[in-house]
Design goal:
Elements: H1 17-20, E1 27-33, H2 36-46, E2 55-61, H3 71-77, H4 85-89, E3 95-98, E4 112-114, H5 138-141, E5 142-143, E6 146-147, E7 151-154, H6 158-166, E8 174-176, H7 180-188, H8 192-198, E9 206-212, H9 227-234, E10 240-246, H10 248-254, H11 256-268, E11 273-274, H12 280-287, E12 290-293, H13 297-304, E13 309-311, H14 324-331, H15 341-352, H16 356-362, H17 372-384, E14 406-407, E15 417-425, E16 430-438, E17 453-456, H18 464-468, E18 471-474, H19 487-493, E19 499-503, E20 509-512, E21 518-523, H20 532-545, E22 556-561, E23 569-575
Parallel strand pairs: 1-2, 1-3, 3-4, 4-7, 7-8, 9-10, 9-12, 12-13, 16-22, 17-18, 18-19
Antiparallel strand pairs: 5-6, 11-14, 15-16, 15-17, 19-20, 20-21, 21-23, 22-23
Helix pairs in contact: 7-12, 8-12, 13-16
């Protein structure tokens, strides 16, 4: 049976439902969703019923959201029994739970529990700041003089004051029950190494999460700031990884294909882009070293976890007066266009450690830290008139992301990189510090890359790069025999090149110079971050120090560093007979 077909009910709700039911549940719960955002939040709450065969949960959608694309498909993909909205209203559910205030919730004829679908109540509708926070005023809680919800869940005591101002008649049904999402995130910090490994982070690499809520004024909705491109362009590619956490309303409002199309150049440059309905963003926050955020809930959660944060965008117009989000917008630094991003992140990490204002804000997300699972379960079961399960209520763990949890495209060519190098004396061997930046994302009027050399693949379809390259890297898959590669053949196509590196299977390379000198470069210490392009850039820098030194009679070693956080690697050069 197609559970998504209009007018069709799940078998358990049919006239002879007991006949078709394998498990005869004693109570029925209706989960009410507005869009995918509210659906994912609802799943956090419904973990209160896990393992209890006395309770059957069904789901419906109000159909009232302008951004509900993909909602029915999401419910079906999760195996959630869907009940059409009009049919749901005619059933006799024991209680309904909603994570949104949208739609005709006043028509629900059975008890309704309303909960927030983000980090508390921080937003207003655009242009209606004088009306108070969305979800805490009469506009959303009263219909025809009658209170809509039977119970209202708050995450912090401070929300009682704002509720008293916006809808005082709702105070008797308000319950402060904490924030299950924040409890999940804090519990997940213990598994930070597992999340980092699953996301493909190497030891010493740092993860920057760039979060974007939906709407104009968000990180994605402020193209003039170009935050995602700038983050990838300015942070050294071997030292940092960048993950974009995009709000479901932005993702599904424009469509997944369109989002991938818009962000394709950034994905090619290494951007990690998880689908927003997964819990990868939660694992990423637990794994993060820095956060570039906006006025979305994810920024609040990042601050609550103590992640150094810079605001890439912030739309004051939609932030509720007196809310923690309003104060967060006043306290956090805004991304400055004229200052290098690495320096801004470093300053944020230094300044925000122990900052009393931020510590106070962290305490305003929940006033019941670690207790949301127990408090929510107590509330839900009291409305179901059932004794709670004997097992202790526990916070549901964040799953470790599975293989390939993010959207990625494997290019048939090596991406062009602008590479800066500096020399140093390691004491045992000459040292070269190498930092690589995606060439396609640089802009002359705003780039941290000066005095760099360009590394490219000669078969790159964008001929700007190989034609301008100082170093050409020939991938092993297409050039499996380094000894067969001749300088004259490659230089005839790209006469401006100064060095050719033919990749070898061990991440080393055979290096060719214009005078037909050949060197074999291989990694003595095979640390996880080394690669052939890094070896080629290190040799290029070493040779530039003194052009005559490439005529080796024996072997020489170079210490190579990509950052202070990554361990150094030793590169050995030897002449090729």
């Amino acid at each position: 049976m197609d559970v998504g077909e209009a007018g069709r009910l799940p078998a358990a709700l049919s006239r002879d439902g007991r006949r078709w039911s394998t498990v005869l549940a004693e109570r029925s719960v209706l989960g009410v969703v507005h869009n995918i955002t509210s659906a994912t939040r609802l799943l956090d709450l419904l973990s209160a019923f896990e393992s209890d065969q006395r309770v059957q949960v069904f789901f419906t959608s109000t159909g009232s959201s302008a951004l509900d694309e993909g909602t029915r498909e999401f419910l079906a993909s999760q195996g959630m029994l869907y009940v059409p909205w009009e049919d749901a209203l005619s059933q006799d559910f024991d209680v309904a739970i909603s994570t949104s205030r949208g739609g005709d919730l006043h028509r629900i004829p059975f008890p309704l529990i309303c909960t927030p679908h983000g980090a508390g109540y921080n937003k207003t509708l655009a242009g209606s700041r004088e009306q108070g926070a969305f979800g805490l005023t009469r506009e959303w809680l009263v219909h025809d003089g009658k209170l809509i919800p039977s119970a209202i869940v708050l995450s912090h005591q401070e929300q009682l004051e704002r509720l008293a101002e916006g809808c005082p008649e709702a105070l008797p049904v308000a319950h402060v029950a904490g924030d299950p999402c924040l409890d999940q995130l804090k519990a997940g910090l213990a598994f930070r190494p597992a999340y980092r490994r699953a996301l493909g982070l190497l030891p010493g690499q740092r993860l920057v999460v760039v979060s974007s809520t939906w709407g104009q004024g968000s990180v994605l909705g402020s193209p003039q700031t170009d935050v995602l491109r700038r983050t990838l362009a300015e942070l050294p590619a071997d030292e940092f990884r960048v993950l974009a956490a995009v709000h479901p309303n932005a993702w599904y409002g424009h469509g997944a294909w369109q989002m991938h199309s818009w962000l394709a150049p950034l994905i090619d440059a290494g951007l990690m882009l998880p689908r927003p309905e997964t819990e990868v963003w939660k694992a990423a926050l637990c794994a993060a070293d820095f956060l570039v955020g906006d006025h979305g809930s994810l920024t609040t959660y990042g601050v609550a976890l103590g992640i150094p944060c810079v605001l890439g965008a912030f739309r004051d117009l939609v932030v509720a007066p007196g809310s923690p989000m309003e104060r967060l917008g006043e306290v956090l630094p805004r991304l400055a266009t004229a200052q290098p991003l690495p320096a801004q992140l470093a300053r944020a990490a230094q300044a925000q450690r122990g900052d009393p204002e931020l510590i106070a804000l962290r305490h305003r997300v929940t006033s019941e830290p670690g207790r949301s699972a127990a408090l929510l379960r107590r509330l839900f079961y009291s409305w179901l008139c059932l004794p709670e399960p004997s097992r202790p209520a526990a916070t549901r763990p964040i799953p470790v992301p599975s293989v390939s949890p993010v959207h990625e495209r494997r290019l048939p060519h090596l991406p062009a990189m602008l590479v800066t190098t500096t020399s140093y004396d390691s004491g045992l061997a000459p040292g070269v510090r190498v930092q690589r930046f995606p060439a396609a994302l640089q802009r002359r009027w705003n780039t941290p890359v000066t005095g760099a050399h360009l590394v490219a693949d000669p078969d790159d379809p964008d001929l700007r790069w190989p034609r301008s390259a100082d170093v050409l890297v020939l991938p092993h898959e297409r050039y499996p025999q380094p000894e067969a590669v001749k300088w004259s053949d490659v230089a005839a196509r790209f006469p401006g090149c100064g060095l050719i590196a033919v990749e070898e299977a061990d991440q080393g390379c055979t290096v060719l110079f214009a005078d037909d000198t050949r060197l074999r470069a291989h990694w003595v210490d095979r640390t996880a971050w080394v690669s052939c392009p890094l070896a080629a850039s290190a040799v290029h820098a070493w040779a530039q120090m003194s052009p005559g030194r490439r005529h080796l009679r024996g072997t020489v070693r170079i210490e190579v560093r990509a950052s202070d956080q990554l361990p150094p690697a030793l590169l050995e050069l030897a002449p090729v007979p």
